[in-house]
Amino acid sequence: MSLSKRALPCLLIVAFILVGVFSLSSTKAFAMSSKGSPEIAFHTDANTYTKTATTIDVYGICNSNGVSVQLYKKGNNNAIRIVDVYKGMTYNKSLGAFTYKTSISLKGLSAGQYDVCVYGYWSWKDYRAELQHYLTIQR
User: Does residue 58 belong to any structural domain of this protein?
Assistant: First the structure.
């Protein structure tokens, strides 16, 4: 049996394993993260939302006071969706902060680019974070 006859099955097996690993990878690798205050850092579940998407999921950290998560359309300074997160937060001991997950409904939104901003406060300090780039919603 020649070397090429023995190597070919091994290469095929390795190729199938690699294809399986890459196809099962999480979509969180493509999620959008925030810039701004690290005390209320957050990220979304995706960068682009297709016609079948129903919500934008936002995951973040905050202090015990909670945060306000707001959705803005590009070029408009008025928030079109506001979700206040004050309950349902869990304390993460390794981060030393509370974590939360909230969802913003996409119902009734037109196609375009949108920004998510998170606002919070603690004592006399105000914190603000926003996405590094705009989200794209397709309709």
Answer: yes
Q: How far apart are CA 36 and CA 98, in angstroms?
A: 18
114 in a structural domain: yes
Q: How far is CA 43 from CA 12, 76, 103, 136, in A?
A: 37, 21, 12, 15
Q: Is residue 19 part of a domain?
A: no
Number of domains in the chain: 1
**Which among 68, 69, 34, 27 has a CA at the least distance from the CA of 48?**
27
pLDDT digits (tens, 9 = 90+) for 49-95: 999 999 999 999 998 888 999 999 999 999 999 999 988 899 999 98
* Residue where the block lists tokens 């794209």: 136
- Answer whether 74's CB lies under 8 Å from 110's CB: no
Domain, as residue range, for 72: 34-137
Q: What is the DSSP letter of 45?
A: S
In this prediction the pTM is 0.75
Residues 6+ apart with CB under 8 A from 49: 56, 106, 135, 136, 137, 138
